[in-house]
Every structure is written in C-alpha cells, then in structure tokens.
Amino acid sequence: MQGNSQTSSVRTGQRKTQTLEDVAQTFIWFEHMREKQPVSFDERMGFWNVFRYNDVQVVMNDHARFSSRQQAGTPTPFTASFLEETIVAMDPPDHRKLRSLVNLAFTPRAVAQLSDRIAQITQTLLDKVKPAGVIDIVTDMAFPLPAMVIAEMLGIPDEDWDVFRRWAYGDTEKNTPQPTNRAEMEKRMRLMEQELHDYFTNLLKNRRDSNRGDIINTLSNAEIDGQRLSQEEIVNFCILLLVAGQETTKNLIANAMLCFTDNPEIMERLVRDPALMPSAIEEVLRYLAPVWNLVRLTTQEVELSGQIIPANQAILPWIASANHDGRQFSNPDVFDIQREPNRHLAFGHGVHFCIGAPLARLEAKIALPMILEQLPRLQRVAGIPIDVTIGIVFKIENLPLSFQL
Which of 38, 53, 168, 280 has its CA 20 to 30 A from that of 211? Predict the structure, then answer.
C-alpha cells in the first residue's frame, strides 16, 4: 500500500508540518497496515515498515539481527550524522561499554537531585505567563523547561544561553527561512552539528580539570574497569543529550497538554487527584508517543509476520503504531489514564531503552501538575489551528491555551 497524501510524509520518515486532522488519518493508516500489511516494503523509499507491537518489540530487542549501526549506501530516512557515533547507533559490546560509563551521570540519585530546580524553573515560566491569561505550551513551557534543565546539567555558562537555546530549538540562525527540500535540511543540519561539535570540544577542554559537578565533569572522570570515555565520545554524548534529550521531554509535555485539553473531564480529575498524574503520563507516552519510529538494519535474512526480509535492509519499527495495537492494548484509541497494564514502547525496549526516560518522566511529573493547578480552566484558544511535525518524532509546533485566574 502506498498510502494517501496525508500519510506520505510519515511513511518516508521525513519532517512535514501537518494538522491534527492529518494525525487522525495517520492512525487510521496504522490500523490498516497492522491488519493488512504488518511488514511491508516501501519500494519508492527502499526500506521496510513494521507496524505490529510484537514485531516492533522483536526489532528493538534483537540487536544481533537488527543492528542500530547504519551502513553507507543503505536507504534510510533522513537522520542526523552525529548520531552515528553515539550510543543510539551502536551494538554490543561497544554499546555496553559506552552505556555503562554514561549511566554514571544518570544515576537515580543524580536525577532525583534535579527535582527542586525543575520546580523552580517551572514556577518562573508560569509566573511569566500568568498576567497574560494565555500560554503557548510549546514556546512558553515545553521547550524552555527541558532546555534550561539540560543547560544546567551540562554547565552551560549564562552568557551562552541564547546560542544554546537556538541549537536546542534546531535553528542555525534566528529568523532564517525554513529549508524547502531535503538537501537544504541536510546542509543546515551539518552546519549545526559542526557548530555544536566545536562548542562542546572547547567546553570540554576548559572543564576537564574542574570540579564543577556537571555532566561534562562527571563523564570526563567516569571510569569502569580501567575504561574511560574519549573526548570524542563525551562531545558526541553532549550533542545527543542536547538534541534528543530535550526534544523527548518537550514533546511529552506538549503532547500531554494536548491530550488533557482534548479530554477536559480527565483534566479535571487530574486537578482533583494529582496522584493520578504518573499513570496519566504513561498513557500520554502510549497514546501519543514523542518518538514515532526508529531505524534498524538487518544483519541477516529474517522473518517477521510471515514476511521474509533480506540482509542489509533498513527497517522502520513504528512505535506509534505498536502503541495502538489492539492485540496488546484493549480499546487502544481511548485515552485512559488508569490503563493497567501499560507496556508501551515509547522509550524503546531492550539495550537501547532511553537513558533519559527517568529525567523526562520527572520533568513531566513535576511540571504538569503545576500547570493544571496554577492555570485554572485551561482550554484551547479558538480559531488558531494546531500545527504538528510528523516524522521520526512527533512534534507539536504550537498549542495556545487560555486560562482564568
């Protein structure tokens, strides 16, 4: 099936601004593909799509047959080249060594210690919008909160915040027109990657002998069984944390507020009983995942749902589709904040389970109740369409909400 025009950009993994109506059509397409073509080859793009929960989980877990490393010349959707040398694009044993060292900077204690600062930043952002009676959840909260948290974790100097903010938002220059084609997008991404690489290389040189306690210092001194991270590995991880780390949390917060305002009765329940928020966050992750697909490469001939896939083929396991598979979830298209069990795949599975998942959950668990409590009677601003970007990630571009204090 080639899909209709509303799903074409999703099928190719390319970024394209669409509307909430397009999102609904995409989930209809997912359902059709799960039933009719659960494993299908996209002849135009040259890669395979996987839609069912069990198959997606297999692709995520079996790193021996489905490699995270991408080979030159293999058709894949557009991805940033800096990912090639990070833990998300490595297989064991290289992945195991790097993951073990990086984990030293993301211990439960280290993440929990950020709670007070997350609350302080959230309060500052809320205080800024209260006089206006309106908040754009994306630009006023979902973007700046995780970006500020990561900036502090990395020890970014205050004077560099404007530059850091621009990188976190994905723009190489302010007020620069958006790319109109893939070549322009890749050129801009390469420019940003080089800027980021140079910046963090210099920052690492200046921090290597310091005792600031930030992630750069922690990673510089991390050692397991005599192994330490190289300068290049630390720089690449800092870039990954900036680009991928803040994007996941930003999308989680924005997606949550979209789901809550779509279901005002649920939003009222959460106001009355904040103890429901952790399970509500898990349902947001299932119902509207921040990341919609991954890319893997077959190392040998494999079979999924009766379909034979040759070796050296690019595979897209669709998380967004798997999380709505009726074989795994009852009433999958219903937003149920007390769903149990809820074994969604939003943060991946297996050795590549998202290292930043505890931080993303913590930020959402702190920020969302504060938003609902301090901005009463939240509702969508009428007459303003909600734009979304659908691709490897699902990103809400704007979400203006009014409230009455």
Answer: 168
Sign, CA dihedral 86-89-94-100, equals positive
Nearest to 30 by CA among 255, 280, 307, 326: 326
Token code pair at residue 62: 């079996």
How confident is the model at residue 7, as a pLDDT? 44
- Cα 103 to Cα 97, 108, 218, 301: the distances in Å are 10, 10, 10, 33
Three-state secondary structure of 381-404? CCCCCCEEEECCEEEECCCEEECC
Pairing of strands 387-390, 307-309: unpaired
What is the maximum span of the chain, computed from C-alpha positions, in angstroms? 61
Give CA–CA dist 29/236, Å, rounded: 36
Q: What is the DSSP string of 98-137?
A: HHHHHHTTS-HHHHHTTHHHHHHHHHHHHHHHGGGTEEEH
Cβ atoms within 10 A of the Cβ of 16, count?
13
The two structure tokens encoding residue 258: 């979209």
Query: pLDDT-derived band of residue 182, with 50, 70 and 90 as boundaries?
Result: low
Q: Give the containing element (helix H, strand E) for 270.
A: helix 264-272
Confidence of residue 245 (pLDDT cuts 50, 70, 90): confident
The answer on pLDDT for 320 being more than 80 is yes
The answer to whether 193 and 80 are in contact (CB under 8 A) is: yes
Is residue 312 a contact partner of residue 297, using CB atoms and an 8 Å limit? yes
Confidence label for 138 from pLDDT (cuts 50, 70 and 90): very high
Sign of the four-CA dihedral 226, 232, 238, 240: negative
DSSP letter for 305, please: T
Residue 64: the pLDDT is 93
Mean pLDDT of 291-314: 95
How many residues are listed for the chain in this entry?
405
Q: Match 């490595």 to its residue by tokens.
A: 90
Q: What is the mean pLDDT of residues 6-29?
A: 69
SS3 of residue 314 by DSSP = strand
- Provide the token pair at 194: 């080089």
Torsion over CA of 22, 25, 29 and 31, rounded to 10 degrees? Answer: 130
For the segment 250-273, the average pLDDT, to the nearest whole number, is 97
User: For all residues of the chain together, what is the average pLDDT?
Assistant: 86
* CA–CA gap between residue 288 and residue 252 (Å, rounded): 8
Residue 219 has pLDDT above 90, yes or no: no
Phi, psi (deg, nearest 5) at residue 190:
-60, -40
CA torsion sign for 308, 60, 37, 49 is negative
Please give the Cα distance from 384 to 17 (Å, whole number).
15
